[in-house]
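User: Could you walk me through two proteins back to back? I'd like the raw sequence and the structure tokens for each, with a short line separating them so I can tell where one ends and the next begins.

Assistant: Of course. Protein one, sequence then structure:
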Amino acid sequence: MTGFARVTGMPENYTDPSGNTEAFRAFTQTPEAAGPANAPSRTPLIIGAALVVVLLVALVGWLALG
């Protein structure tokens, strides 16, 4: 064994839509994937973060004055 690896070509499974007119027209006329219709509310996350900050400030104040 000589230690050399043999590299084989990969199959061409992707067809470029610009390769023919019909495929390109179909590609350009497909609708874009829509984003999430109802994004989850970030309000609970903001309230939770504010609560953690208030508790940490209260804890540091209690330790500093205690």
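----
Protein two, same layout:
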Amino acid sequence: MAQQELELQENFLNKDTEYNQLNNSKSQILNEEIEYQIGKQKIFRLSIAFMTLFTAYGSCTSLISGLYKTLNFTNLGLMSLFSTYFTFAFASFVAKGIIQKFSFRVVFTISNLGYTACIAAGIWVFMCEGSEQSGFCSVEAIYSIVNFTAALCGICASTLWVAQGGYVDILSSTCPSKRGVLIGYFFSFMSASNIIGYILASILLNFFGNMSYFLLNSVLSLVSAYMMYVLPDPYSPNIKSQNDNRNKQQIKPLKEQIKEVLVLLKDKKALYLIPYYWLVGVILGCYASYIFVVVKYSLNEEQVQYAPQYVSYVVIFLGLSGVICGIVVGKLADKYNLLILAIGATLLVTTAIIFSLLGLIVKEYALCFLIAILWGCCDSTNSSLQVIIASKDFPGQLQMFSLQKLANSLGCSFALIMGILLQSYPPYCILFIVFLFQIISTICLAVLLSLKNTENKV
């Protein structure tokens, strides 16, 4: 009888323990779902602000080269983009210290104004159209103004994007099972800016002219600055102590900030990721100027003068494919191995390169839409995955986002400078350079995957 009572008591205690564990599990799932919904709302507001900014700025990166060429400023567009990404690279070293000193919304707002100045420089250029090339309208003055504002934009871009990585990382850390969904959600909105931006560009360039294009985009950029200023704080009540600790931290000297970024190079995981981050930048630098080349090759003599408008039609599909890929890759990232997905994304770059070469041979305008779709998939997929990998493998480390943006911007600067130096060579030369970096990136990701698999077995 006593034995039966003891067994009953043990069963009751076991059931009670299981019941408590079940309740704790349900409570944890419920809390994570609440954090996910809160985080989703905040990321939605951040995404809309970024989408508005890059609706204004994004189309400029692809069209600016062609637009400035219409005024016989042959390399001005590519040089300004190079100035942006070159300064972006080295400003990334100190971005963490600046973000640490101010609130996210202040950093976002001030950084936004750098983009506004860069866009507004286009107003100055086209105000000088038809006037004597002297004073502030001289060639030297125009090159100086455009490149100065481009460099300012690069400095602001470093703080904007490192802050973006930190903001999203904080929100996604409260619901790790939905990390990929939240980051993919952001980049799908970013890609939507291409659709809106190029539809807007085609309307403005066709019916209102170049001056109106830069003027309205400057206004849109200021609107996004206000949207960023009213953003909510990313910290939830559950992790409010993180915010307090962050504010108490002292800003480290510049030398130490640079060391914090470079010390990551001793980490094998970070070291093998750098070629991948570099490739993402090369992709941006390549299609930002190459889409214009492919489209121009497909046009006849009468259509060439309207090349920027034809480019704007094509890049709408680049944005559409980016939106879809941003959503899809976010969902896949929460279910599958991130490195395998990244390897697949680098192989997608090869497909885009092959069809880009085909576009130069066939010279068919309809094929340019497929080429744009492929480059849009490459850009959105790889941009999303690089942030998800940095956020998952290096949680809470803003310096990893600095290293990521350093590699991105150097890769983009390299592609842009190659675009300038290889202008007298056949346009497919730049594609072979991209292909070379794609191979290196794929090999490094495969080695990193092998190392991780070995660690897991041990």
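The two ends are 50 Å apart (CA to CA).

Let me know if you want the two compared in more detail.
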